[in-house]
Amino acid sequence: MMLRKKLYEGKAKVIYRGKEPNTLIQYFKDDATAFNNKKKAVIPGKGVINNFISELLMTRLNDINIPNHFIKRLNMREQLIHKLEIIPIEVVIRNIATGSIVKRLGIEEGKVLPRPIIEFYLKDDKLNDPIVSEEHIIVFEWATHSELEEIISLSARINDFLTGYFYSQKIRLVDFKIEFGRFWSGQDNSIMLADEISPDNCRLWDILTNKKLDKDRFRQDLGEVDIAYKEVAYRLGVLSEKEFKKVLKNDF
Ligand code: TMP
Question: How far apart are CA 222 and CA 215, in angstroms?
Fold first, then answer.
């Protein structure tokens, strides 16, 4: 591997400086964490699968004019992305009640929500990513009012698109988490979708059986985490069975 500058290492990805100005390289690790790093494991092949799934979904979102940081996939584990100034807010969109909303508000598990709900969490591990309101975001200047409006509007479009896209592969998009950043050009900036979209940050249930095909298999010790991620990849058609077997034989 060529020598290059590591800028940041997160729980699931490493960010390196890109060759061209204002670009970065996003490297997908096999590491999985849950409950703010309290639970850790390595899921063999996860990074490769998430790289390919995120490439596909970011490309499709770009096709419908959802601006995002993805430029191109470089290899099995890396993609070239635009450098953004990350807005320190995790945006969660929920279509079905499960996870923290069930615990926090006592909503019935599995309830189909009358309409999608958007929530915001402050990206701060030390504070355990607390839920915050739109007021907090604006008053504490994590984003401006107009940036937040753009984030809400883009999130609704992303949810509508991804819900249909997964549905066509017999997968229910239960909820997901996304992040946004500012893309600067000269004095101006615009909001772009950042990070990744993969079974690490989506809840994906099989339409017929409700089988979980996402990171909840790791969070809840349900087993066969890697197989579930591969199943999503197969269903989305990003890798054929043959390609996958080849990938898994090599040391990736
Ligand atoms: P939650 O129900 O635990 O709040 O999770 C909502 C969605 O956000 C779910 O799809 C998992 C995703 N998520 C992340 O991607 N990262 C996180 O740190 C957390 C807590 C949730």
Answer: 10
Angle at the Cα of 63 from the Cα atoms of 58 and 65, rounded to 5 degrees: 90
99 lines ligand 1 (CB under 6 A): yes
73-105 per-position pLDDT tens digit = 999 999 999 999 999 999 999 999 999 999 999
Coil/strand/helix, residue 145: helix
Report whether residue 203 contacts ligand 1, using a CB cutoff of 6 Å.
yes
Whole-angstrom distance, CA of residue 206 vs CA of residue 218: 17
| CA–CA dist 223, 201 (Å, integer) | 18
From the CB of 217, is ligand 1 less than 6 Å away? no
pTM over 0.90: yes
- Number of the ligand 1 atom closest to the C-alpha atom of 98: 2
- Give the count of beta carbons closer than 10 Å to the beta carbon of residue 77: 20
